[in-house]
Amino acid sequence: MISVVLKREFGSYFSTPIAYVFILIFLILSGVFTFYIGNFYEREQADMTPFFSFHPWLYLFLIPAISMRLWSEERKSGSIELLMTLPLTRLDVIVGKFLAAWVFAGIALLLTFPLWITVNYLGSPDNGVIVASYFGSWLMAGGFLAIGSCMSALSKSQVIAFILCGVVSLLFILAGFPLVLNVFHGWVPVAFVDTVASLSFLTHFSAISKGVLSLRDALYFLSMISFWLIATAIVLELKQGDA
Predict the structure, then answer these.
(1) Nearest partner of 204 among 132, 108, 153, 145, judged by Cα
(2) What is the three-class DSSP state of 116?
(3) What is the CA radius of gyration of the chain?
(4) pLDDT above 90 (res 16)
(5) What is the predicted pLDDT for the residue at 229?
(6) Cα 231 to chain centroid, rounded
(7) How far is 174 from 77, CA to CA, in rounded Å?
(8) CA distances for 229 relative to 44, 84, 223, angstroms
């Protein structure tokens, strides 16, 4: 039954120009960050580090744009009531909606393949690292989307859902930012600093983007996705109870 929701939701992305606009903006910004801000040519290195290093910040603004409509639109239009009366479990609907958004984000990511071809044309990059980085980026996008799903369930306003997703996602990025971690060094136990860093998307994505595709980092993102989807279910249950 999850597949039914997935197909319905995925099709809805391309029923309006929004999907195409999002993909276009993603590709343009990826190019700008890679070639101009990341100094791709000036580095004279055949790798995609400039491309992937900006993904956490790129997703911070673009992923909420996808996730804000997951539940806010349903709640605002009242169609969520009809959706919940269908012979589907709440879990089917939540997972189906999430997977549709995740697949859509994956397609946008895959469409950056010309850059990969360019890197291989210019030199001999470590393609294993590049594959790991793509996988890590997709996992990270899933984490952002799961947060966005929960935030979207909290409000009928897509704008508020967008802002909430951006703020919460930013916290999970900054938790591993060196500038933030340095604030704790010297006056709190090292174990506490390590715990804060371990909660960061940035910490785990950085490890994967270096080609170290460990089970620990993959499980972190999958755990985050599971946690926020469960939180989405709880929020929807509470909102339905209030209604």
Answers:
(1) 132
(2) helix
(3) 19
(4) no
(5) 94
(6) 16
(7) 35
(8) 42, 16, 10
* DSSP H helices in 175-214: 178-184, 190-198, 201-209
Q: Which two tokens stand for residue 233?
A: 């279910």
End-to-end CA, the chain? 26
Phi, psi of 146 (to 5 degrees): -65, -40
CA distance 200 to 86: 37
3-state SS assignment for residue 124: coil
Q: What is the pTM of this model?
A: 0.88
Domain residues for the domain of 203 are: 2-242
**Is residue 35 within 8 Å of 49, Cβ to Cβ?**
no
Which amino acid is residue 158, in one-letter code? Q
Provide the domain count of the chain.
1
Q: What is the pLDDT of residues 171-203, one digit of tens each?
A: 888 887 777 777 766 677 777 777 777 888 888
Q: Which residues lie closer than 8 Å to 168 by C-beta, 6 or more apart?
A: 147, 151
**Burial bucket for residue 121 (CB in 10 Å: 0-12, 13-18, 19+):** exposed
